[in-house]
Amino acid sequence: MSLLTLDAIGVVRNGNVILDDVSLELSRGEIVTIVGPNGSGKSTLLRLIIGALAPSCGRLVRDNHLSIGYVPQRLQIDPTLPMTVGRFMALPNRHRQSDIEAALTSADASDLIKRQLSALSGGQLQKVLLARALLERPSLLVLDEANQGLDHRATAEFYRHIDRVRTELGCAVLMVSHELHVVMKASDRVICLNTTVCCQGHPEHVAASPEWQSLFGIEARDAVAFYCHRESGHAEPDHNASEQGVQRHAEPEQNARQTLREKRACRHAG
Ligand SMILES: Nc1ncnc2c1ncn2[C@@H]1O[C@H](COP(=O)(O)OP(=O)(O)OP(=O)(O)O)[C@@H](O)[C@H]1O
């Protein structure tokens, strides 16, 4: 059974359609990334999933045992509020000190436990937020641009950590990121959102799809292909989206498929 099912979800705010006809499913153990341009509805979709926002239409079904750990895009901290990282980790639910220390160590943030929250750098704060989200051992970890502020090396370690978390907890991971080439390599499935779901599937196939290229350009495709190729040692990346690897949802693409079928029919006929 899926952890989470969204069926034809729409969100309208102040007369603006922010999400339209969004359907998706999430299962335990998978890492799924939502990509899309600025203002395409990614954070709204995450807020809907964590229950901070109600859909205007459609159906959202959560598994009875679903528990969500959420790492927000940003956290406003009052600089006058005295609050150490250790204290912050114990809110709102109490945890054993040993569990807090283990979570911070696992997020490479053990040296921050006595520091003031308001004095952390952006990258340090993200590590602490991730550690706190994992304390609850969620069945779904939701990350909204959680690698913001991390340098190149810390970002690579961050995604290795997410992969370990997925294995250890068996949870699903749903994340949003603009670091397309890095985040896509770390994902099992990519969902390309632009108010509605344009296409979804295996990262390399999505990056090679026409919908992706019309949103992000050829350069983004090549950056992803190069990165995947270099990291995996695979043979030459396939720039032609395979029909198995990517599900598209745009009308022009249906026309393209039709043309493809016609071409194949011609080839067979010839
Ligand atoms: N309460 C609201 N009322 C009206 N419009 C809103 C509201 N909340 C968000 N929007 C609009 O919805 C659109 C999607 O916003 P959202 O923050 O979900 O996008 P995003 O894909 O996460 O963007 P970014 O990549 O820039 O973080 C934006 O145009 C935003 O201005």
The rough form would be described as: globular
Pattern of helices and strands: EEEHEEHHHEHEHEEHHHEH
Helicity range: 40-55%
In the CATH hierarchy, what is the class of the largest domain? Answer: Alpha Beta
Termini Cα gap: 46 Å
CATH topology of the largest domain: Rossmann fold
Number of domains: 2
Strand content: 15-25%
**What compounds are bound to the protein?**
adenosine-5'-triphosphate
Keywords:
transport; ABC_transporter-like_ATP-bd; alpha/beta; binds adenosine-5'-triphosphate; 270 residues; 10 helices; 10 strands; 40% helix; globular; Rossmann fold; zinc transport; Zinc ABC transporter ATP-binding protein ZnuC; 2 domains; Metal_Ion_Import_ABC; disordered C terminus; 3-stranded antiparallel sheet
Can you give a write-up of this model?
- A hairpin with a 2-residue loop joins strand 1 (4-13) and strand 2.
- The chain has helices at residues 42-50, 85-89, 97-106, 122-135, 152-169, 180-185, 203-207, 210-216, 218-232, 251-269; strands spanning 4-13, 16-26, 31-35, 57-62, 68-71, 140-144, 172-176, 189-194, 196-201, 246-248.
- With 270 residues, it is an alpha/beta fold.
- It folds into two domains: 1-67 and 140-227, 3-Layer(aba) Sandwich (Rossmann fold), CATH 3.40.50; 76-136, no CATH class.
- Helix 3 (97-106) packs across helix 4 and helix 8 packs across helix 9 (218-232).
- Bound molecules: adenosine-5'-triphosphate.
- Adenosine-5'-triphosphate (ATP) is lined by residues 13-14, 16, 18, 36, 38-44.
- Adenosine-5'-triphosphate binds at residues 13-14, 16, 18, 36, 38-44.
